[in-house]
Design a protein that fits this description.
heterodimer; A: alpha/beta; disordered C terminus; binds iron/sulfur cluster; Aldolase_TIM (chain A); S-adenosyl-L-methionine (chain A); rSAM_sf (chain A)
C-alpha cells in the first residue's frame, strides 16, 4: 500500500464529501446472521468533529472529477482544485479496516460524475456489492444515487445498500436552474420515484416470502442547501413536506450553505453559515414528523419565515394562546406534545405516571420538563400557576429574558432540538 | 429504629439484603456497601451475607411484580455502583413488593424516578463505550481495546460487540476495574491481564500488526479532513466527547 498516495486521496475525497450533512446510520435492520462482519441497526456516532457533528460513517467521494458545473459545489468542473479518484478495492479496504477497529458504522459513498451517470453509478454499486458478497459485510451502506442513473442500476443499488439518496440540492426548481444549469429536477425525481415503488413492492414481497432479499431497508433521504438561493422557510418546508408525502422519504437534511466559492450567483465568501436557521428548520421538521404538526401550522403565507429567536413549537404556542393552558393530568398525549418545554420522552412519562397519581411541579421537573417554558402553558396538581393574563408576546419576552444567549439569533452555537 | 445493613455491593448482595428486610420485618433501613462506622450507638447494624439461594428467591418474587425489562433496568442501575444510591434500589424493590400493581412507570415516586435516572446514566455510558471503543490489531489477529468507563458497564457490552464483531477475536479491557472481556470467535469470557510483563512501550508496539499504524494514521487524517472550520463549535464538541475519554480515542491522541 502506498501510504502517502492513499492519505492524499483520503484527504481530498473526504474533504470534498463533508458538505453533505447527512450522517445517519440508523433505521436499518441488517443483522449479522452469516457470522460475518457487522450489523446495521443502532446508528452510533463514533466520534464528533470539532464543529460538533456526528461522525458515524466513512463519508467520501469515489472521485471529485466532475463533468458538471454546479455553482455551490467545490468539485464543480470549473473550480481549480486538486482531483483524485479511489479504486474500488481502496474503498473496500478502508471501509473494512475502519469498521473492524470500531471507528465507523459503515460507508457513505458519493461521487462526482465522470463520463456519465451510469458509468459512475455502476462503480458505486460495484463497491457495495463487493463489500456484501466478498467480505460478508453487514455494516451500514449509504449510496448517493447519481441523477439520471438507469433503473437497473438503482435496483441493484437497493439490493446492497441500506439507504439511497438523491440530493435535491435546491428547495425549488428555479433555484436549481440558477445554480446547477446541467441538472434538471426531473432527472433527480425519476430515481426517487423508482425507489419509492421498488421499496413498497419489496416490502410487500418480504411479508409473504420471509426469504425475499431486503431492499434499501433504511429507505431514501435527500438534502437541500439552505441560504444559497432566496427561498423562504415556507417554501423549504412545503417542499420537504411534499417529498415526505409523495416519495416516502425517511429524512430531509437541511444544509446551511458554507460559502466556499466566489460566484456572482452566490452569497459572498464572508457570509456566515446560517446555522441558527438550519437548526430551526430541523426543529420544524421534527414537529412535522414526530409531534403531529401540519406544515401549515408552522409556516404559511402570513408566516413565511421561522422565528430565529425562539423555536417553532414555542412560536406556534404563542400564536395559539387559546389552546392553553393545558391540564397535564387530563389532556391527551397529542396536546401535551404541543406544550413548549415538553419533549417526546417527557410526554410519554407524564402519560404513564399520571395513572398512579396526579403530578405536581416538582415531579414534572424531575420527569424532565423544562418548566421555565412550560409553566406558561400548563396547569397541574398545585394551586400555584401562572395567573397573570399574559399575551403571547409577553411570554416570548419573559422566556427570552430568562434564557441565556443561546436563544439570540446571532450566536454561532448550534442548538439542540427542544 | 433504623437498621443499617452492610452488603458487598453485588447484585446478589442487594437481593439478599431485600430478603433480610422481609425475613426480619425491618422497618427503616439504611443499606450501605462498606461499614462507615459512624454513630453506632443508636442504630442496629447487620452484615448481610450474600446468599445465592435467597437472592434467587427474591428475584423470582420480583419477576412477579415487575416485567423482565424492569429487572434488567434494575440490574443496569446497580452497575452505576453509586454507594449513596443503594437505598434507592432497595426502596424501589420494597415499593414494588408492597404494591398491588406494577409500579415501573410511577415516575411520581422518588425511588422509581431515581432508578430511572440511574438507568439513563448507565445506559449513556454503555452507548458511549459502544461508540468510543477503539480496537488495535495485534499480531495474532486479536483486536484489543482499553477502556475506562465511569460505570461498570462491561457486562452490558457483551451482546453488542459479540454480534457485531462475530468474525474477529477481540478483547475489551476495563483498565480501571482491571478486568476484561475476551471473544474467541465462539464465546465471550471474563479475563484479567497481567500488564507487568509489558512494561516497556516498545513491547506493546511490537505486538501490533504492521498495518495498525497505517490505519490509525489514515483515521486521524480522515477526522481532520471532515472538519468544517467555519462551523467550529468547541463547546458542543466537548459536550459530545468529554475530555476524560480522549486518551483512548485514536483520533484525539
Ligand atoms: S454534479 Fe455533484 S459533484 Fe458535480 S458539480 Fe454538481 S454537485 Fe458537484
Amino acid at each position: 500500500m502506498n501510504v502517502d498516495r492513499i492519505t492524499e486521496k483520503l484527504n481530498i475525497l473526504a474533504d470534498a464529501a463533508k458538505y453533505d450533512v447527512s450522517c445517519a446510520s440508523s433505521g436499518s435492520k441488517r443483522k449479522n446472521e452469516n457470522k460475518g462482519l457487522g450489523n446495521a441497526s443502532n446508528g452510533i456516532c463514533h466520534s464528533y468533529t470539532e464543529d460538533g457533528r456526528c461522525v458515524s460513517l466513512l463519508k467520501i467521494l469515489l472521485t471529485n472529477h466532475c463533468i458538471f458545473d454546479c455553482a455551490y459545489c467545490v468539485s464543480r468542473k470549473s473550480n481549480d482544485v486538486q482531483r483524485a479518484a479511489f479504486t474500488v478495492q481502496e474503498v473496500v479496504d478502508l471501509t473494512i479496516n475502519f469498521y473492524r477497529r470500531n471507528y465507523i458504522e459503515g460507508l457513505f459513498l458519493s461521487s462526482g460524475i465522470f463520463k456519465d451517470a451510469d458509468y459512475t453509478m455502476e462503480r458505486l454499486v460495484r463497491i457495495a456489492k463487493k463489500l456484501r458478497t466478498e467480505h460478508n459485510f453487514n455494516g451500514y451502506i449509504h449510496l448517493k444515487s447519481i441523477p439520471g442513473a438507469s433503473d437497473e442500476l438503482m435496483n441493484e443499488a437497493g439490493l446492497y445498500a441500506d439507504r439511497l439518496s438523491v440530493n435535491l440540492e435546491m428547495p425549488t426548481e428555479a433555484g436549481l436552474k440558477l445554480l446547477a444549469p446541467d441538472k434538471n429536477q426531473a432527472d433527480m425525481i425519476k430515481p426517487m420515484g423508482y425507489l419509492k415503488n421498488a421499496i413498497i413492492q419489496r416490502t410487500e414481497e418480504k411479508k409473504i416470502f420471509k426469504k425475499a432479499p431486503i431492499f434499501a431497508p433504511a429507505g431514501q433521504s435527500t438534502q437541500v442547501i439552505i441560504g444559497a438561493t432566496p427561498e423562504n422557510d415556507s417554501e423549504v418546508l412545503q417542499s420537504a413536506n411534499y417529498f415526505y408525502k409523495n416519495f416516502n422519504l425517511k429524512r430531509v437534511y437541511y444544509s446551511g450553505y458554507v460559502p466556499v466559492l466566489a460566484d456572482s450567483r452566490l452569497p459572498a465568501l464572508n457570509t456566515s453559515v446560517p446555522m441558527v436557521r438550519e437548526n430551526r428548520l430541523y426543529q420544524a421538521d421534527w414537529l412535522m414528523r414526530f409531534y403531529g404538526f401540519k406544515v401549515n401550522e408552522i409556516v404559511n403565507d402570513s408566516q413565511p419565515h421561522l422565528d430565529l429567536d425562539i423555536d417553532p413549537k414555542l412560536g406556534w404556542a404563542i400564536r395559539n394562546m387559546q389552546a392553553f393552558p393545558v391540564d397535564i393530568n387530563k389532556a391527551d398525549l397529542q396536546m401535551i406534545l404541543r406544550v413548549p418545554g415538553i419533549g417526546l420522552q417527557s410526554a410519554q412519562k407524564i402519560v404513564s405516571a399520571r395513572k398512579f397519581a396526579k403530578l405536581n411541579w416538582d415531579q414534572l421537573k424531575k420527569i424532565g420538563v423544562a418548566l421555565n417554558r412550560a409553566k406558561y402553558f400548563i396547569t397541574c396538581k398545585s394551586n400555584e400557576f401562572e395567573r397573570r393574563d399574559l399575551t403571547g408576546s409577553n411570554i416570548k419576552q419573559f422566556i427570552l429574558a430568562t434564557s441565556q444567549s443561546k436563544y439570540l439569533k446571532n450566536t454561532q452555537v448550534q442548538l439542540n432540538l427542544f | 429504629m433504623m437498621t443499617t445493613l452492610i452488603y458487598d455491593g453485588t447484585f446478589e448482595g442487594l437481593l439478599t439484603a431485600v430478603f433480610e428486610v422481609y425475613d426480619r420485618r425491618l422497618g427503616r433501613v439504611n443499606l450501605q456497601k462498606s461499614d462507615l462506622g459512624a454513630n453506632a450507638l443508636f442504630e442496629d447494624k447487620m452484615q448481610v451475607i450474600t446468599d445465592e439461594a435467597r437472592a434467587n428467591r427474591v428475584l423470582k418474587g420480583l419477576k412477579q411484580k415487575i416485567s423482565s425489562m424492569g429487572v434488567q433496568r434494575l440490574y443496569a442501575a446497580h452497575l452505576a455502583e453509586m454507594d449513596s444510591d443503594a437505598n434507592s434500589l432497595l426502596g424501589y424493590i420494597r415499593y414494588a413488593f408492597d404494591s398491588a400493581v406494577n409500579i415501573e412507570e410511577d415516575y411520581g415516586n422518588r425511588f422509581v424516578m431515581r432508578v430511572s435516572e440511574m438507568v439513563r446514566m448507565v445506559r449513556r455510558e454503555k452507548h458511549r463505550m459502544e461508540a468510543f471503543v477503539r480496537f488495535q490489531k495485534l499480531k495474532d489477529d486479536t483486536f484489543y481495546a482499553g477502556i475506562e468507563p465511569d460505570f461498570n458497564v462491561l457486562p452490558l457490552l457483551i451482546r453488542h460487540f459479540k454480534s457485531r464483531y462475530a468474525d474477529q477475536k477481540w478483547i475489551i479491557y476495563d483498565l480501571r476495574r482491571k478486568y476484561g472481556l475476551y471473544y474467541d470467535l465462539h464465546h465471550t469470557q471474563y479475563i484479567s491481564l497481567d500488564f507487568a510483563n509489558v512494561a516497556k512501550p516498545a513491547d506493546v508496539i511490537a505486538a501490533f500488526t504492521e498495518d495498525e499504524g497505517i490505519y490509525q494514521h489514515l483515521w486521524k487524517n480522515y477526522f481532520t479532513s471532515v472538519n468544517i472550520p467555519s462551523r467550529k463549535n468547541t463547546k458542543l464538541h466537548v459536550r459530545h466527547i468529554p475530555k476524560r475519554y480522549w486518551k483512548h480515542l485514536t483520533e484525539k491522541i
